[in-house]
Amino acid sequence: MTDTTAAPQATSRRRSLPLHVLGPVLALIALIVLGAMLNSNFLSYANVTNVLARSAFIGIIAVGMTFVITGGGIDLSVGSMAAFIAGVMIMAMNALIPTLGIGVPLVLAGMGVALLTGLAAGMLNGFLIAKVRIEAFIVTLGAMGVYRSLTTWLADGGTLSLDFDARTFYRPVYYDGILGIAWPIIVFALVAILGELAMRKTPFGRHCASLGANEQVAKYSAVKVDRVRMGTYVLLGVLVGVATIMYVPRLGSASGSTGVLWELEAIAAVIIGGTLLKGGFGRVWGTVIGVLILSLIDNILNLASIVSPYLNGTIQGVIVILAVVLQRQGKSAE
Amino acid sequence: MQRRTILKGAALGLALASGPALAQEDTMTIGVAIPSATHGFMGGLNYHAQASIERLEETYPQLDFVLATAGDAGTMVNDIEDMVATRGIDALVVLPFESEPLTGPVQSVKEQGIWVTVVDRGLSVEGIEDLYVAGDNPGFGRVAGEYFAETLSEGDNIVVLRGIPTTLDNERVEAFQAAIEGSGINVLDMQHGNWNRDDAFNVMQDFLSKYEDIDAVWAADDDMAIGALEAISQAGRNEEMWVVGGAGMKQIIKRMMEGDPMLPVNVTYPPAQIATAIELTALGLVSPTPVSGRFIIGSQIITQENAEQFYFPDSPF
């Protein structure tokens, strides 16, 4: 099924597919069983909705990150970028209230600002990496510092808050939904499905994988390497914008501490899901599993309080490593 | 860490560039080293530091200020060394990022005959600083705890959101627990919300799934209170419980002034304490007024009646 994206490894992958692929799924199932045993409310509608809606921000970003990493890149700036986009979006919406009034046009304008800012930020990263040819790690590390401090500066060291009435109008975008499914979950699901299709069925997905596997070979195979690489960062930038659109209505504010460490959570989710950190192979649905594993760990630790909260970080770390160990054992059987 | 170092460089560069090019002979310089504005409280602290520096520069033309903000303890040490070496400061006002790593460097500043004012977090060796200005952490927990003990009755259930695991957080929580001891209040759970809105929102959502009956929340910080309030209203349980935050964030104080039933009281822990420290240090330099010793700013309880006195619309916090 994924063979088209990595033809040279096809035979060995097919043999090891079950264990390799099942690792993260097994870890997820184990977590769900553990959660259900520890607390009867774990599988309740409210808790499931909470966890899925909370996962949506990192999840939407992680889908974009899957393409960047598959293409052999990395983006450390997404957490700060989300904070920056949220800040710009809030300021733009506050400034537009006198002209547009409070209503659908204002919210649409805010969403447009968020998407455009994300697009611009992604293009800038992509341009510096693909055209100017600076290491992705350095470009995005720099961008991470820039966006974080710009956010703090915009907020004057404090918090940017959306106008109270505008917030009340916008709030349902996070808290409501259709047929009892909250909007962030719907958007996350759509992004994941489209991402999965793009990765498997479109030339863009195949080109990402061949770029990540071997840039020279990709170039000689008539893949427009620069354009594909730039495309992955632009896609990620836009998806950070989408995540921000879902994030802002939740608390209606942004500050220097918004989105701290989201980049690492997104990268961790991608790797847990089976995408290779060195590029060449990506699995979007695996990323979704990775995101769910990360949020469930937090949720279970809060619901169970079996250990000292000081140790939460240790437990998270051990589970993340275990999930990847399960996966790698499958691979070493190759 | 790497990122913060870069940022600090820029901040220090700006601070140095903004100083006057030609200092007069009798000019005295005060160095101010504080953590950078990474969350609401520190944002407020940065605001008050800058505001008091502006005010003092106008009042006392003979005073110069160097302000450096640091994202970690190592950077703060570098900042302080630079201030002593390149600016020849006469007094240092420092809010130590962490007590242990800053103790040695601040001690060596003191040994060079420079006035030292320590703010908020004490050093690990006593007697280094000339002046110590701080908020009252045990008092912060105690005042909140006393309100819970008076207001709730035996058998009522509460949950607690804690800050980033630090000595400061432990002091507050221990004083809170001591204050509610014997009142029969059940503390159902305590988890770290890290003084962060998003973390507090997630933790509160999970508390609400886990416990059927919660009567009150000690959020211990106004950023966390905002996250918790949002989670409570999402669950539609506004009527069941109230929330006590802390530190007097302007949005929270505003809601209290409007009489929000979910926010009965708040406890102060003023970020403006940095202004107290800078003003007193300046006063000591320009006049014979004695300012050495300890200045502990009490934690007061804010209610709807007196909320207006604690409302600073211009501060970012």
UniProtKB/TrEMBL annotation, chain A:
It is found in: Cell membrane. One of its GO terms (cellular component) is plasma membrane. Keywords: Cell membrane, Membrane, Transmembrane, Transmembrane helix. GO terms for molecular function: transmembrane transporter activity. It holds the Pfam family BPD_transp_2. The chain crosses the membrane at residues 21-39, 51-69, 76-97, 103-124, 136-154, 174-197, 230-248, 260-277, 284-301, 307-326. It is a multi-pass membrane protein. This is Monosaccharide ABC transporter membrane protein, CUT2 family. It comes from Citreimonas salinaria.
TrEMBL record, chain B:
InterPro entries: Peripla_BP_I (IPR028082), SBP_2_dom (IPR025997). Residues 1-23 form the signal peptide. It is found in: Cell envelope. GO terms for molecular function: carbohydrate binding. Keywords: Signal. Pfam families: Peripla_BP_4. The keyword Signal applies. Residues 30-262 form the Periplasmic binding protein domain. It comes from the Bacteria. Belongs to the bacterial solute-binding protein 2 family. This is Monosaccharide ABC transporter substrate-binding protein, CUT2 family.
